[in-house]
Amino acid sequence: MSKTIDFNNTQIAFQSKTTEQLGKAKFLFSLLGYGWLTRVGKVLMQIAFKIRLPIEPIMKKTIFFQFCGGETLEECKSNIDVLYAEGGVMSILDYSVEGADNEANFDRTLAALLDICNFSELQEQIPFLVFKPTGLGRLELFQKVSEDLPLELSEMEEWAKVKKRFESICMAVAETADLKLMVDAEESWSHKAIDQLTEEMMVRFNTKRTVVYTTVQLYLWNKMRYLEQSKELAKKHHIRVGVKLVRGAYMEKERDRALAKGYESPVCVDKSTTDKNFNHGMSFVLENLEVFDLFLGTHNEVSCMQLVQKMEEKKLLNDDARIWFGQLFGMSDNISFNLAENGYNVVKYVPFGPIRDVMPYLIRRAEENSSVGSQSSRELQLLKKELKRRKEVQGDID
Hints:
The chain is an alpha/beta fold. The protein has one domain: Alpha-Beta Barrel (TIM Barrel), CATH 3.20.20.220. Helices cover 56% and strands 11% of the residues. It has an eight-stranded parallel β-barrel, surrounded by seven helices. Helix 7 links the parallel strand 1 and strand 2. The two termini are 37 Å apart. Pfam families: Pro_dh.
């Protein structure tokens, strides 16, 4: 029952962490609380990488250690094993190398995804794979296709390769016994092309089980209509549609572009409206579980509790295979582990890759946690609480 879930229970939240690890996390989140320090640190890191200063060892022990599972699949293995063994939390291995801009890099990303698929198939604690479409093709090309602009011959050939890569990873996952594949979010001006590709893959591979999931960013006010269209797609083709619901990650970029180009901003006017849109989307999917599988990707405790309560109202089992909760590695352990303790399906996104290559991802995590009203203050509060609790317990033992 939801009344037994306490997101303030730090003993459960941090059961997989040593006191030394908690101390390091406390120090890091304390630093991230200073926005100016994060901004300066971002510039210094970029300069250091540009002039090839050997800062990887320092980063690996600090921000990389907190937010990434490792540099390789093998390094991730120990982290995902601990998450599962200590708290029943499963994992999604997220190859977080960004900035691919040529065919060779796109092919390397596909090869890495296929390796992840082979690796994950043998791990019971990894139910999903995830990839960003722009890891397999240029954002500018997705945009051009989305806007129905004519393609040059070379671009037509390029787009055919993008579609082939999409198909290759979807087919590889579909051929496993039960792995699922998440198509991650991108900027709105690429959505039409990405949605079309994803829907083609759903129609092809989601006939017997839910293999392919799309991501719906509900800070975009028009996405409720897309959910309604997805329901129609499912009924028309007799398939299941997997949807990951998120609020969104490109708010400022979306608003700035709309202003610069003179069109209406696709982003909800404020957080309250975004929350209402998110809750509406969650309710819509839950009311249509005959065609949908739901993945709730959020660090918002209220949203998670609302889903728990709605599941109770509908008399759904805690571990209903159609419903998943997800948070990022290194954040919101109080949500992940307390939900898993109560039998819900929970996964952590576990980013990995060479430190230099995952820098854009790490910078985003740092910026998000240093912004006003960010998650870092909540993380810091929980870390302090658990360290105090452990100190008191140790005092009793002594």
